[in-house]
Write a structure and sequence with these properties.
Mean pLDDT: 76
Helix content: 40-55%
Distance between the termini: 112 Å
Strand content: under 5%
Number of helices: 11
Radius of gyration: 49 Å
Order of helices and strands: EEHHHHHHHHHHH
Structural class: mainly alpha
Number of strands: 2
Strand order of the largest sheet: 1-2
Largest sheet: 2 strands, antiparallel
Shape: extended
Low-confidence stretches: 10-28, 62-70, 74-86, 126-133
């Protein structure tokens, strides 16, 4: 082999085998290991030099793959049915770079899957406002809705437990109608709160009237009236607050059937007591109508005070009856029932520490009895 016939075997070239006598390639040709005749040399014929770099992407011409005599991209990558796999230069870009992106059948606002080839950019969503998520137990006007939004914003800023603020002299509970009650219901709850204040005023005036009855010496049993009036002054305000006002406060705050039933039961007895105090049976501690008639005949000043006390008891009775009907109307409009109240009571009892202790004691007692019975057998 001469030096002129030699080329760099590592350049882009194709090997051309010598042909046999028949003009075709054969495994017994001159380059074969089984050939016994005169040897022939194998020459390396260089191909055309590689094409210079050209633009890629969407700016490249459509015929960039066929410009050097190569087949189109489909036959380049297929390698099936088209014979031998043709040579592709390293300077050629990926064959599918110019392919347009597949059209997406999804709407712009549809969620993007991990398997989507080209996810669509979602438009920015507007921030969620309180008016879109606000839910109230009663219909609200525009002004009430604005106040309700501000109330909920205040609660969101202070989500933790709140310190006691009632009563002012010695706080023991947290009481705030403007923060814990929905705006449309605040008027009713405030009326109930003022009615409780009216009860406090009634027992104070009643105690003063019974004291005047005692000092005047009139009436059937002035000492008994004054003693019972002191007991009413000491017990009635806290009992009415925690037995019927606080339950109705929690009922409006939590929309609970159980608290509504507690209010109905104890407020009914409270209205009955107000009627009883308005009547004013002698020796019962109530400066009502009957005691007023007995005292007014002989002592005009003391009788006038008893008449004022009777008027306060009468007004308190009427107001409590009206508020009872308003609360009952709201209760029926919300669709509460006795079955729901019973279920809530059982659930609260089961979740309380006392309920858990009682359940644990019952299970322990049953297990002990069963074990003793098994041992005896």
């Amino acid at each position: 082999m001469s030096t002129d016939d030699y080329t760099n075997p590592f350049a882009d070239s194709a090997v051309v085998d010598a042909q046999d006598d028949d003009g075709g390639f054969s495994e017994f040709g001159p380059n074969s290991a089984f050939y016994k005749g005169p040897t022939t040399t194998t020459s390396y014929v260089p191909l055309s030099p590689p094409a210079p770099p050209h633009p890629t992407g969407r700016d490249a011409p459509a015929s960039r793959l066929t410009g050097h005599g190569l087949p189109p991209p489909t036959s380049v990558l297929s390698g099936r049915g088209g014979g031998k796999r043709p040579f592709v230069s390293a300077f050629d870009p990926p064959p599918f770079e110019d392919a347009p992106p597949p059209a997406s059948s999804k709407s712009p606002g549809a969620p993007v899957s991990a398997f989507d080839p080209l996810p669509q950019a979602q438009p920015p969503q507007p921030p969620t406002s309180y008016t879109q998520t606000i839910k109230s137990s009663v219909p609200m006007t525009k002004s009430e809705e604005a106040k309700e939004i501000k109330r909920r914003e205040r609660l969101a800023m202070n989500p933790g437990p709140r310190p006691p603020n009632w009563p002012k002299c010695r706080p023991c509970i947290y009481h705030s109608i403007s923060d814990e009650i929905e705006v449309p219901l605040q008027r009713t709850v405030r009326a109930l709160y003022y009615s409780w204040f009216l009860v406090c005023v009634c027992v104070v005036i009643n105690c003063v009237a019974c004291l005047l009855i005692l000092t005047s010496g009139k009436g059937a049993s002035p000492g008994s009236d004054f003693g019972w009036s002191i007991l009413y002054l000491a017990l009635l305000p806290p009992a009415s607050f925690f037995l019927w006002y606080r339950p109705v406060y929690n009922a409006f705050m939590k929309d609970s059937s159980f608290y509504f039933f507690v209010f109905f039961i104890f407020n009914f007895f409270h209205i009955a007591f107000c009627i009883y105090a308005t009547i004013g049976i002698p020796s019962t501690g109530c400066a009502g109508f009957m005691n007023t008639l007995d005292v007014f005949q002989d002592a005009k000043a003391e009788g006038t005070v008893c008449f004022v006390a009777t008027g306060f008891w009468l007004v308190a009775t009427i107001i409590h009856i009206l508020l009872f009907g308003r609360v009952r109307k709201h209760y029926r409009r919300r669709g509460h029932s006795f079955a729901e109240a019973r279920q809530q009571a059982l659930t609260s009892a089961a979740r309380s520490d006392t309920g858990k202790a009682v359940a644990t004691a019952a299970v322990t007692s049953a297990a002990t009895g069963y074990a003793r019975q098994y041992d005896e057998v």
